[in-house]
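Cross-check.
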Amino acid sequence: MSNKTGIMSERLKEEIARELGVYNIVQQQGWGSVSSRNCGNMVKKAIEKANKNYH
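Predicted model, tokenized:
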């Protein structure tokens, strides 16, 4: 019985994608079409949000 979940929730990923202006790519082509640069920016943004919520 394996319940594999990602580190970021789908909701958080979508929120960050909207903030970075790449959500339209996700909707049209899926997450695999988001560039490496934008994925990196999403991770940075998620870390910023986590740090903000932590402090």
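The chain has a mean pLDDT of 88. Residues 23 and 29 are 10 Å apart (CA to CA). Passed to J.P. for a second look.
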